[in-house]
Specification:
Layout: H1 3-15, E1 20-29, E2 39-43, E3 48-51, H2 56-69, E4 75-81, E5 96-104, H3 109-120, E6 125-131, E7 138-142, H4 158-170, E8 174-177, E9 183-189, E10 194-198, H5 202-213, E11 217-222, E12 238-241, E13 257-261, H6 266-276, E14 283-286, H7 290-302, H8 307-310, E15 313-314, H9 326-343
Amino acid sequence: MNDLEIYKKAALVLSTGENIALITVISTTGSTPGKVGYKMLVWGENGQTISTVGGGLIEAEIINIAKNILPKTENQVSRFNLDDTEDDEKGICGGSIELLIETFDKKTLPLFKELSTVIEKGGKGALISIISPKKPPEKIFLKNIDQLDASANINFSLEIIESIKRVVDKEQPEKKTLENGVQIFIETISEQPMVFIFGAGHLSYYISRYAKSLNFRVTVCDERAEFANKKRFPDADNIIVENFESIFDKIDINKNSYIVIVTKGHKSDEIVLEKAVGTDAKYIGMVGSKRKTLTILKRLNKKGIPQDSLRRVYSPIGISIGAVTPEEIALSIVCELVKIRRLGAAPQANHMTIASSNN
């Protein structure tokens, strides 16, 4: 469950007049099942939930704490120590975990609507939670770091401002203490990367579904309207029906973009790849065998495209998992997207070489 779904659900529940509890992992030490930034939502008399902060008995306990706070609006920090003995019912992970429980009423509906809208549109910013136990929760959403000086009458020190900038830059949430002793939790609303899928066949259908479920935005591009349409790709953010020769004039590819080339044939793949390597895309992958890929790369190299540009291409595409079916191949491709997103490209990637392209 991603943050977008949590915020959308929060807005939906609040719109009915019912209060909600948002639980966030704000710090950990040692090995814990829940990591900093994990969230879950709790609402209703029976403690309905979505998402998780790590599972197990600790999660069950934190849900009960949240239910007891509702319907009041306040925040509370709960800390749990996890003993590393096997007969400990809290688990054998070891370490400790702090969870922030915030309960909200309908007055905060605009905040959760805004968060949902910003994420859906690919926006970004910083979300700051003021941790003041037993007081109503306070969250500050900054679309622009320049808003800091005017944020809710809170005087941020230069150290805190730098921390916020660091969180936004590295997308790593952290807890900080202000000079007056008040603690804040800083997290980022990250720009969701866009996956441009060239081709709208069976493989693309599964790539789109998997990528969307993993917090990527999706644009499907194809020449065939009977394939590239909302009925086949209901979750796609954009669908573009255009000749592959001119389709790049209608899309905005940047350093946070991922290009997946799975068109209907080798000729179309080559057309798209030639244009793709001229972009700043973070990832360019093309389906096909090594023989097919080397043939296309050699032709493009003869056209004057530098080998350094062509070495960016991931092909054969996807993580090696022995995939056979379209579903499995799509899974291997999206696994590779996640790997690049989280770990970056290898310093000297060996996924493809055209050293012998002039032979």
